[in-house]
Design goal:
alpha/beta, five-stranded mixed beta sheet, single chain, 315 residues, binds zinc ion, globular, 13 strands
């Protein structure tokens, strides 16, 4: 096991978060930048290389742990499908290792965040829990007996694409009625835009400078927090769908704890209350009775810290 710190990077469609993590979980450096996703793979690879170069000026690191969206081929180091980055069958491990000169270990972003919370966050002391990330997309990292559930190809936990509404809205995976098309930040923004187009009044329009196309999930969240009824209704309906999906997971996995992170977790009660209520209504009372739903302790750094911890634990 390496004694030097590990560089953990969480590469998302919107932002790249990086931490230098000591073996004991201490963070000695962190950085966050916007992802140049629309500029293509080479541009993003350059960003990762620059982050590594900057981290090296802080402390010598011996490995990189990289959290990535979408299903991955862990053995080959390839991103199979990441619509938010417009990557398909994209090799990542080999080019990044070549450019930085250190071994690179990859993991799905929700799995990495779950591992980060298990090792250094809210999941410490738990053996069976689920980490859900709700932001641009929706994903889950499932911890069972203190191990990540990977499935055959490492694709387990693709919660965003479970069907929660037959004939529901189209999803960017090509199907319809997926949880992600009903409860992600992208979905919440889209639903508000549709309602505004129909002429429904909402503070979200004013917060977006009167431009319907500029309405984001953040705008909707701010409007809801300020008491806007339409924004509150859209978020609560979205979170009811998330609660139903969670109830199904709870019914299958019987976890001790659910951690909900990602950009939308900042909505706090507006998110957690309807999720908890829908989850409780839709699974065994004995399963949900003492089941807590809480925010992550590591916040937006869970994926980066978890990726570093995975690289550290890898042999
Ligand atoms: Zn889908």
């Amino acid at each position: 096991m390496p004694a030097n710190p590990i560089l953990g990077i969480d590469l998302g469609g919107t932002k790249i978060a990086a931490v230098l993590l000591k073996k004991n979980g201490g963070v000695i450096w962190r950085k966050k930048i916007a992802t140049a996703a629309s500029d293509g793979f080479e541009a993003v690879l350059r960003q990762l290389t620059e982050i590594a170069a900057e981290a090296r000026t802080i402390a010598p690191f011996t490995r990189i742990g990289l959290a990535l969206p979408g299903p991955l081929d862990l053995k080959k180091g390839v991103v199979l499908d990441a619509p938010n980055l417009s990557w398909r069958d994209q090799p990542v491990t080999a080019p990044l290792a070549k450019l930085t000169g250190v071994p690179v270990f990859i993991e799905n972003d929700a799995n990495a965040a779950a591992w980060g919370e298990l090792k250094h966050g809210a999941g410490r002391g738990f053996s069976n829990f689920i980490y859900i990330t709700v932001g641009t997309g929706i994903g889950a990292g499932i911890i069972t007996n203190r191990m990540i559930v990977h499935g055959r190809d490492g694709g387990a936990g693709e919660l965003g694409h479970v069907n929660v509404k037959e004939d529901g809205p189209p999803c960017n995976c090509g199907r319809s009625g997926c949880l992600e098309a009903l409860a992600s930040g992208t979905a919440i923004a889209r639903i508000m835009q549709e309602r505004l187009q129909e002429g429904a009044p909402s503070l979200a329009l004013k917060l977006a400078g009167g431009n319907i196309a500029a309405v984001t999930a953040e705008t909707v969240g701010k409007a809801a927090t300020a008491g806007d009824l339409l924004a509150q209704e859209i978020i609560s309906t979205a979170m009811r769908h998330l609660g139903i999906a969670l109830a199904n997971l709870v019914q299958i996995l019987n976890p001790e704890l659910i951690i909900i992170g990602g950009g939308l977790a900042k909505l706090e009660k507006l998110l957690f209350d309807p999720v908890q209520a829908a989850m409780k209504r839709n699974c065994y009372p004995s399963f949900s009775k003492s089941l807590r739903i809480i925010p992550p302790e590591l916040g937006e750094w869970a994926g980066a810290a978890g990726a570093a911890a995975i690289a550290l634990d890898s042999t």
